[in-house]
């Protein structure tokens, strides 16, 4: 029963994604479906009645009643440590959504698409990449994924396999340490790195940028400097300013 927009849900599967992140598959029996890029609110209720609500992007899209989240732990958080370390299949929670109509992608002649993710900002962009691949539009989509180290990349194995199998073109950026054999620079994304990986402004791509607030602002400013119109840049951020 939906009460106040909240839908009862049950955790179906959990799997480790990185040392600090986990992918959760959640069954929502009356889920209406969602577009790639949307998010949900998750509500947890303690035995004493205390409730905590947090928003999480969806790594899944479409009409399935099983939705996917990938949650990175915030060490002093109320909700993410439980979802990453404690929740188990069969546990119950509540979901509100799908939410958001701006940071979404739908198949249908939109032209080049550039995805730029920082850390767990990959989650909604993963939904877009999956949707594009399944729609036969992967050739029009490029992904630039910035992480501290290779082991911090959520969905790393799937992204690498898909890129090798005709999926979305993938470029990595490492800000702290690179894997063995890496011959690129290590450090914060700069204009040159973005220019080299992204569709050029002349191709008029729609650009989706998701990650921590500082990352998103830095990348959006760089894109404008490189000639991308601000109106073609969609951003979604998390964390404090």
UniProtKB/TrEMBL annotation:
Official protein name in the record: Ferredoxin reductase
Keyword terms: 2Fe-2S, Iron, Iron-sulfur, Metal-binding
Xref: Gene3D superfamilies: Nucleotide-binding domain of ferredoxin-NADP reductase (FNR) module (3.40.50.80), Translation factors (2.40.30.10)
Domain FAD-binding FR-type: from-to ranges: 4-105
Cofactor: FAD
Species name: Microbacterium aoyamense
Family annotation (InterPro entries): Cbr1-like_FAD-bd_dom, FAD-bd_FR_type, FNR_nucleotide-bd, MRET, OxRdtase_FAD/NAD-bd, Riboflavin_synthase-like_b-brl
Keyword rRNA-binding: no
Domain of life: Bacteria
Keyword Iron-sulfur among record annotations: yes
Pfam family, one: FAD_binding_6
